[in-house]
Amino acid sequence: MQTCSDPKSKPPFLLEKSMESSLKYINKKFPNIDVRNSTQHLGPVHREKTEIIRFLTNYYQSFVDVMEFRNLNFDFTRSYLDLIVTYTSVIFLLSRIEDRRVLIGLYNCAQEMMHGHVDPSYARLSQMVLEYDHPLKKLTEEFGPHTKAVSGALLSLYFLFVRRNQGADQWRSAQLLSLISSPPAMINPANSDTMACEYLPVEVMERWIIIGFLLCHGCLNSNNQCQKLWKMCLQGSLYITLIREDVLQVHKVTEDLFSSLKGYGKRVADIKESKEHVIANSGQFHCQRREFLRIAVKELVTVLTDEPGLLGPKALYAFMALSFIRDEVTWLVRHSENVTKTKTPEDYADSFPPSLAWLFLWHLAILPSDTDLTFTLSSLNLKQAPRLFFFFGSLSCFSPPLPQLQPQAYTSVAKAPLHLHENPDLAKVMNLIVFHSRMLDSVEKMLVETSDLSTFCFHLRTFEKMFAMTLEEPTMLRYAIAFPMICAHFVHCTHEMCPEEYPHLKSHGLHHCNSFLEELAKQTSNCVLDICAEQRNLSEQLLPKHSATTISKTPKKENLREKARSRDMDKLHINLTELALTMNHVYSFSVFEHTVFPSEYLSSHLEARLNRAIVWLAGYNATTQEIARPSELLAGVKAYIGFIQSLAQFLGADVSRVIRNALLQQTQPLDTCGEQTITTFYTNWYLESLLRQASSGVIILSPAMQTFISLPREGEQHFSAEEFSDISEMRALAELLGPYGMKFLSENLMWHVTSQIVELKKLVVENMDVLVQIRSNFSKADLMASLLPQLMGADNVLKRMTIIGVILSFRAMAQEGLREVSWGEGFCQALLSWESFSECCFLLYQVTLSVFELASAAGVGCDIDPALVAAIANLKTDTSSPEEEYKVACLLLIFLAVSLPLLATDPSSFYSIEMDGFSNNIHCLTKAVIQVSAALFTVYNKNIETHLKEFLVVASVSLLHLGQETDKIKTRNRESISLLMQESSFLTLDMLESCFPYVLLRNAYREVSRTFHLNRVPTSTH
After folding, report:
1. How far apart are CA 203 and CA 328, in angstroms?
2. Is the pLDDT score of 273 beyond 90?
3. pLDDT one-digit tens code per residue, 536-553
4. Which of 43, 138, 241, 248 is most exposed, with the fewest beta carbons within 10 Å of its own?
5. Source organism's superkingdom (predicted)?
6. How many other CB atoms are found less than 10 A from the CB of residue 141?
7. For the chain, what is the total number of helices (H) and then of strands (E)?
8. Three-class SS string for 906-965?
């Protein structure tokens, strides 16, 4: 029925343009619709009759259910106030459906068109709809004869309602809900003459009183006590709930009805007076009650948590506390959504209900686990126990068991031999029996009855608003977990007669539970990462680059604290403490069939935020090619991780898993969100900035210092290469990227190497014929003199091989850093005898390639680079045969060997003793020749030593011929070039001596040293 009145979920037929004339005709003629003679008006209905029947059946049957509810149960309304309220609420709801006539008439037309007769219930249903066009008028007529019964039932609430509507001051003076106000009586059982009424919802009583006297208003002018009860109720609320979110505006509806009746002028004045009283006082009245309950229930929870045995004798207090909290929360929800104009809006926008709800849920959590048979029996005194056991023994004779209301019914009829009102003690015992029976048999039902907050399912805007206010109030953050936990109550809104609502309510519950937990996890992770950022700032001040600033500070200056900064940090720590309490309050809870773990939400957000924080710390800018030094990033990451690890026992999340997952994602090119990681950033930066400038001669590799060094250039602003490539930086880079990240870096380096090899092969193919002749006649000086000038692109070959050498040298430095990190972590203990192993398997390169790959992943150096072998193997093409590829590889070494003398003509080919290298990085050619040759001939399954020996022979002949040159331009720096051939891991010293006598190498060292010092003397003198 609520669906019918919702514009968003109206049946589609009511919105179609083609049906508009038919709907107007049905509404006009209702209920007497001539289907057979009105084809002109009902043509669209005839065409869509099947679809109309299918779609409107549930709606029509709902209206029929309302009619049947009225006909079958009306006689019992005098005894059941709930039935009166439910019946009246349904009628009010029915009257609010504007399209009720159209829906019923449209369905009946389609029914008659399809089956040839009207629905059997249509005549009575249409009559009822017409009668209840003005529901209050009809309802008051129907209930007029029952005024005495209804008013009698309502007057039985008088003293209870007065007591339940006391203010906070009266509660405080009576020390309501306090277990410690009278220590000697702490273990005495809490009893009442009306046990079940003590936790009866006030809203339920208000509905009974307002609707009861609305229908049976005759007693208000004749019974003073009825009038007092009615006025007291009018002064309590502006709105009462009909069904779910539908409310009744109490004063307006009552005033409209009484204004139309004669003799009710004074009652109308009472209504206006009560309305003014409610508007002026009720907000503050309930605000004070909420404040009292926050303190009283917190005390009660503390005592019961410490002494759960008191739940037995004081179980009534527990249920009263739950009921009182529920009353205040539902009153606030009901009024905050409907009251728009008030002088004290703060009374309806309380930021403290979450604390009440949290105490409510905490109180709820300790009840089912400890309230059992032992505690219940311990609450009975000696006089009550025999009577109860006798009564239970009598009830056990009934099969099936005697319902709880049946004895009351037997003692309340007119001709009963025993009248209950004449035996109040029996009524008290029966109340006591019912309460303790429910404590034994259905504690869960009692908990639902006293603690159901499912009303939030139908006041989602208020629910979300309260949650937002909670997050803005630091003192309320610890109670924020109440909001997702309340979503578990939404399951109580479902009903077995409305299964179609279940998916909708389930969706609401899960969606809001998820959104609340997501927001709480987000707030917590933001707070954690903000504090981490401050910890990182503190750790950064300890870096060596800030030592001068630290030392230069005046004494006692470190004792001065920045007030604003300290306040911000204090606020962050307070918020984190509160959020940690709320996220760690409960391990898990259920929402419909789903089990929810708050810690998993926090872990997920922490992981994502930590990932973003690490990327932010790297500070990579693709435009300006700026990035943080690996050592500085590592120090920042350690500061973050250290603080997060210190929170492990407070957050409730698996911090170790969070850190492990975040760091592991940073070793991959992309994280789980598809964003680039520091592995990608550093790979791009080292390739695009450092190695590109090293290839162009701006940066040189210094083997002596084991780092790249930037050469000073006037007018150029660039980074200092040594700050990003020394031993400590490579070690920090390896620790950040890990084996996976270093493997990704190596693969990208190898891609650039193979791109150079492809170009080198093209040059070899262009000079194929000449190189073949040179390979056969390299020892014939006359023939070589004519062949060498025919070579094209010799300078290009040397340049590309130098680039390859620079890249491989950088990779070797990175691998060394990885080896030191891995060795320090005990990762390489299985490779302690790696050198002896590699010597034993020296000739089995192809067999041991997988072992080389394992060693390379740990940073251990290998004679054959498995990454380079894999990259070159992927270059194989179908267009050329393996023999041709092998031939090109052999000629490439020949091409390089005969091109080496050309380096002597380059002014940059100057050997620096301090750097232990050349200004144009040609000292990297050695590594390029060795690594590329080893990889190429491993791929082609050929002997590496044989081909390197051939290269050494050809290179020695070329360089020795250089020694006989008389042209000073060609012989410039020739001593430096000779140093290139001093060592090879694949060649023995005997082989090297046979080609390059050691005396030549010694003379080369002496000559370059003398030249270096001669060049420095003028500079020093100047």
Report:
1. 10
2. yes
3. 988 888 878 777 676 666
4. 43
5. Eukaryota
6. 11
7. 49, 8
8. CCCCCEECCCCEECCCHHHHHHHHHHHHHHHHHHCCCCHHHHHHHHHHHHHHHHHHHHCC
CA nearest 851: which of 862, 932, 843, 840? 862
Backbone dihedral region for residue 494 (phi beyond 0: left; psi -120 to 50: alpha; all else: beta): beta
- Name which residue leads in pLDDT, 4 or 450: 450
* Amino acid, single-letter form, for residue 39: T
Q: What is the pTM of this model?
A: 0.78
Per the listing, tokens 């709800």 go with: 357
Residues in the chain: 1022
Mean pLDDT of the chain: 79
Q: What is the DSSP string of 665-731?
A: HHTSSB-TTS-B-HHHHHHHHIIIIIIHHHHTTSEEEETTTTEEEEPP-TT-----THHHHSHHHHH
- Please, which residues bridge with residue 621 across strands? 626
**More reliable by pLDDT, 859 or 714:** 859
H-helix segments, 792-924: 794-824, 834-840, 849-857, 866-873, 882-899
Residue 395, pLDDT > 50, answer no
What is the mean predicted confidence (pLDDT) over 448-468? 87
Instruction: Record the tokens describing residue 832, joined without a space.
Output: 């302690």
Residues 976/909, Cβ–Cβ less than 8 Å: yes
Where is 427: in which H helix or E strand?
Answer: helix 424-441
Can you read off the two tokens belonging to residue 296? 């009283």
Joined together, the tokens standing for residue 549 give 């600033």
Tell me the sheet residues that pair with 243. 246
Residue 192: φ, ψ to 5°: -155, 150
- Report in angstroms the alpha-carbon separations of 6 from 93, 96, 504, 517: 12, 10, 15, 30
CB atoms within 10 A of CB 226: 24
- Kindly report, residue by residue over 291-321, the tens digit of the pLDDT: 898 888 888 888 888 888 888 888 888 888 8
pLDDT at res. 629: 93
CB atoms within 10 A of CB 564: 8
DSSP string of 446-467? HHHHHH--GGGGG-HHHHHHHH
CB 856, CB 828: distance < 8 Å: no
Whether 53 contacts 112, CB under 8 Å: no
Rounded to whole angstroms, the Cα distance separating 784 from 775 reads: 10
Type of residue at 265: G
Across 34-45, average pLDDT: 65
Q: Over pLDDT 90: what percentage of the chain?
A: 24
pLDDT tens per residue across span 60-75: 666 555 444 433 322 3
- So what's the pLDDT on residue 590? 92
Q: Is 342 exposed, middle or buried (0-12, 13-18, 19+ CB in 10 A)?
A: middle
DSSP 642: H
Question: d(Cα 478, Cα 581) in Å, to the nearest integer?
Answer: 5
Which residues, 6 or more positions from 579, have their beta carbon under 8 angstroms from its beta carbon? Answer: 477, 478, 480, 520, 523, 524, 527
**At how many degrees (to 10) do helices 630-646 and 727-766 cross?**
130
Please tell me the chain's helix, strand, coil percentages from 3-state DSSP, rounded to the nearest 5: 70, 5, 25
From the number of C-beta atoms within 10 Å of its C-beta (0-12, 13-18, 19+), residue 769 rates as exposed
pLDDT at 358: 57
Residue 408: band (very low, low, confident or very high) from pLDDT cuts 50, 70, 90:
low
Query: What residue type is assigned to position 781 of the chain?
Result: A
Q: What is the pLDDT of residues 88-135, one digit of tens each?
A: 887 777 777 777 777 777 777 777 777 777 777 777 777 777 777 778
Rounded to an integer, the average pLDDT of 767-789 is 85
Give SS3 for 376: helix
Q: What is the pLDDT of residue 977?
A: 46
Distance (Å, whole) CA 647 – CA 259:
66
Residue type, 425: D
